[in-house]
Amino acid sequence: MTTIRQRRVGKGTEAAEDQPSEETNVKPDGKILPDPPGGKVWNILSITVGGIVAISLGLLTSVYVATLHENDLWFSNIKEVEREISFRTECGLYYSYYKQMIQAASIQQGLHGLVYDNKTESVRTINILERMNVYQEVFLSILYRILPIQQYLEPVYFYIYTLFGLQAVYVIALYVTSWLLSGTWLSGLLAACWYITNRVDTTRVEFTIPLRENWALPFFAVQIAAITYLLRNHLQPAQQRLTLMAVFIATFLFSLTWQFNQFMMLIQALALFILDCLDMLPTAKVTWLYLIQISGLLLVCVLQFFNSMILGSLLISFNVSVLIARKIQKNLKKGGLLNRFGKLILHVLLVLCLTLLINKFIKKILNLESDEHIFKFLKAKFGFGATRDFDANLYLCEEAFGLLPLNTFSRLSSTLLFYVYGFVLFLLTVAAVIVAFRNLSGSDQVHFKEKMEEYTVTLKPDAAYSLVHTVLFGCLALSTMRMKYLWTSHMCVFASFGLCSTEVWKLILKCLHLYTSQRTQVIKSNTPNTAVFAGSMQLLAGVKLCTGRTLTNHPHYEDKNLRERTKQIYQIYAKRSPGDVYGILRSFGTDYVILEDSICYERRHSRGCRLRDLLDVANGHIMDGLGENEPDLKPSLYPRFCEEIKKNLPSYTMHFTRVFQNKTFHVYKLAKHK
After folding, report:
1. For the chain, is the Cβ count within 10 Å smaller at the N or the C terminus?
2. Does domain 518-670 have CATH number 3.40.50?
């Protein structure tokens, strides 16, 4: 840990980067002494051994998750269609585009099919490359076609082995980050071991392989490792340029592979903003990181055919606002405690107002509404008023978007990870508060420094960033269970760093001194190739993957028109007349509709969170079952469609003919009235 040293009165508050670090041998005249020959040999040996251990652990993790996947599904012993069915919900949708590119007559035809896709949403032609983050599937399919491996390796294995291989990159990045923070590769070894032993809470790659986060998180970990190195003092210009390039590449790949990239990087930008305001990071490096985030997102925007949702992201608005506010308040880091505290409050308010104004302006110009469901969800989740919005309630009632279950902590504690993490977190938080107060107060008189030199609490920039990073992503994980994997992996790094860092132990001594989706398949041979299917989002992703049939809706929810379409399709589970439902389905070109008993008679969620309840409330109807209803809700004039259709009444059979049923699914063919 590098000391945030006391500053002399009248000097700037930023830590100078041209001073030698406390780990360096320094002569009284300020010249840096060279390391002894034996030290260089030891450093080379240590780096070599540490590097070999890192690569070995990464490969071991890759083989381990591949073995878990094989043992769970007997993947090598099941049929191709069964392998595809194992890619559940949205995973199947993403894999279908890889399959589509592989099966295309040429790469050009495959790309044309994605840019002008009329199979994913009926009655609409959409640009998949614009709407979804599937460039990784495109790249992988092209790679598979040009490499001479077709006769040795099936496409599905090339796909899953690539994802499992990225786990090696993930573990190595975590290992390196912990090593950089602590100064010893033993810390990296511990971080990797904790990641593997806590895999239930650190990754779900073995059973949700094509999920976007499994592509993105390894690159995010690489980015964090590069930022950790960038925040070290005394980097040579060439080292700094190479590190900035590594940060940019990792940021770009992370942004390209996950639709939630902007929200994750917004949290990262908030961490940088907090630390910069408290004078705990070099402002020049923070500015570079802001610009890298903006440029990375803009490059992705170009590749996604100028996706307006990216241009209207809060991240771009926030980063631009910070840079503008900094120009307006040039003397932000000068003055005493009260003076600086007042300036800091004004700075935060200025950045907040500018962010909202810029974001509102961009969305107004672009007429952007693709991400409004996310803000409605956040508003309802954090108690800023109840909502009847169907999309927001759909998220609120999903377990994955609920609070982090308490049993997570018992599992993490069983490997001692959470205990160590909690202790290190408490210790470094106290240190950060002391350092931040000292930086703001400017209590840097020479006599005070000389008196307290032995007991000075210090925190170096990379450790400070890691602390705020883990706190903010911890808050995200506690509020939204699906995002816990961003926190728990970094928890392994943070805990191992604290346990193995000599600087942390010096600080201690100083202180002492004073979730399964059902698998299903609609049989190919019984429906025309041009048939259009309607049903639940999760099921239809599998239908597209396994049959190639056209869908009315799908799980990629980041589009307002699609959300409205899904709400309309879901009227099959509402209290609507057969004529109304038929008219809705035919308006989207539907030929077949699949009804699921698990949704129609759902018991997994409590009253008010079942899909049928959300639809009833959205339609202004009283919900089923015992319990309270809002006073303005009224009884429906019609019974629930998914229940009543099974009675084969004339009013239903004139529109719908049942063509398949089992214990879970009922497939109906729609009549084609003139």
Report:
1. C
2. yes
